[in-house]
């Protein structure tokens, strides 16, 4: 897996809009992000510029607006962040994380049943 750039939580909010609607223009990003966060257009434009600089986004000019497309796929970013979280907090062991949630009553019986269903389906797929 390639090394992914670090992006802030605010930049991630912008990226979620872009992943959902790409290719997307600056005014469209501003409009959609403004519905989710009380940010000024200049703040959103600054985040777009940072994301381009970090090579998470590419931009090209069409008329008077920039059009943005992602250079990092959403699933790739989420997978990378998940792996980093797992490494940082649980030494990379998924079983330790799940056990932590179960032992601290963080998972309901329904969630445990759902995990069991997923594991059972995974086993069946391996056959």
UniProtKB/TrEMBL annotation:
Q: Pfam families of this UniProt entry?
A: Penicillinase_R
Keywords for this protein: DNA-binding, Transcription, Transcription regulation
Q: Which family does it belong to?
A: Belongs to the BlaI transcriptional regulatory family.
Species this protein is from:
Aciduricibacillus chroicocephali
Q: What superkingdom does the record give?
A: Bacteria
Q: Does the keyword DNA-binding apply?
A: yes
Name listed for the protein in its UniProt record? BlaI/MecI/CopY family transcriptional regulator
